[in-house]
Every structure is written in structure tokens, then in C-alpha cells.
Design brief:
Layout lengths: L16 H31 L6 H26 L5 H9 L5 H25 L16 H24 L10 H20 L5 H11 L7 H21 L17
Length: about 250
Amino acid sequence: MPPRRFALGRTEDAVHPDAMRAVLSEFIATALFVFAAEGSVLSLGKLYKDASTPGGLVVVAIAHALALAVAVSVAYNVSGGHVNPAVTLGALVGGRISLIRALFYWAAQLLGAVVAALLLLLATGGMRPVGFAVASGVSDWHAVLLEMVMTFGLVYTVYATAIDPKRGNLGTIAPLAIGFILGANILAGGPFDGAAMNPARAFGPALIGWRWKSHWVYWVGPFLGSALAGLVYEFLLIPAEPPRTHQPLTPEDY
């Protein structure tokens, strides 16, 4: 494998056709994910006055899992299928993406989430996006810890199934594995803080629905968890390239 390195990147790389296609792919994939995910929450609110039921939680978890699996799949071959600023940060701290590329990914992901939330507002006749909120009796710092742990699991799964160069055939089920861990985490943390694990997923509905209470939780927790997962997997679980040793010249080298 190539040696690990942290690259700033060049500004001209941002306008390279491959980079532009990757950024567009992140924008579209994130918009698809947020539209389906937030839409599932709005649909429950349309069907039932109180959607905070066990059945509603399962429906939302399944919708998020399926939507993320599809979003990762459609972007995987073009951009890597991050669909999440936290995943991009995990790849950045592991040296798998340059800072310039990460900045453009973040902009595309946030814009995609905002466009999706705006489309939902228009398509539902003005239903205000719900977004995320910390439940009564749960402190913001407890929510930060919860988001950190859940996002660690999400990004760790991304590394194990989509980034690890020794993943082999496991890469074919990466989108499903990533979607499944998201859905499982929603079942575990949804009643406490909504289980975002994705700053873009939280930002789009918060901006369009103008719900900012405790919004910082959904940035700090996921970013801490993703950075830790990237460092742990990249530097503790992926073997480093062995140092090159001097090899004697062969006749072919002359």
C-alpha cells in the first residue's frame, strides 16, 4: 500500500474533471439520502400525530438504513460514497483524502442536504422539517458522547468495508454494512437525541426548518467520533508500509 501522508492538495485539483464529478456525486447522493431520511420522519408525522412510538422508530431506522445504502452505492465508484462530512473527516485524518478535496466534499454534502430539505418543504405543502433534538432529560454533553460513540461505529465500518485495502470481496457489501450500522444506531440512540451521526443530515433540516436548539451537538459529537475512528483504524489496524531496504543491482538495472 502507498505510504500514509496528509496532503493539503492543490487548488487546481479542485477544477479537475474527476474532482468535479466526485463533488457532484457527493451533492446528489447526500440530497437523495436526506430527502428519503427526513421524508420518512415527515411521513410518520403526516400519518400519526405522535410518531414517537416503537413502531415509528423502527420505520425511521429502516428508511435511513436503506437510503444510506443506496446513496453510498450510487456515489461509491465516483467519490467513494462519503455522503457525510464526518466520514470525510475520518478519511482526511487517515490521509486518504486531501484537505482541498475534503473542503469541497463538505460544501457539496451540506448543500445537498439543504436542497433536499427545501424540496421536502415545497413538496409537502409547507411541512416544516423536523431535524434532530436532544430528548428531555438528556443533557447536551450526554448527547455529544452518544453521537461520538455512534459515529465512531459508523466510520469504523466505513473503514473496514470500503477503505481498508485488504477488504477484498467485503467491499461489495460495504453500502449494506454502512446502512445497517446506521439503522442499528438509530434504534439505539434515536430516543435520546435522534441519532444523526451526520452533520449534513442535521444541518439541512435545521436550516430550512429553523430549529437550532443544541445543533452544535450534531457537529462536535460526530466529528470527534469520526476522527477517532479514522486514527484508530488507519494507524492501528492497517499495516504500515515496511521501510524500503537497499537492493543490490541486477544486470537488468544497468
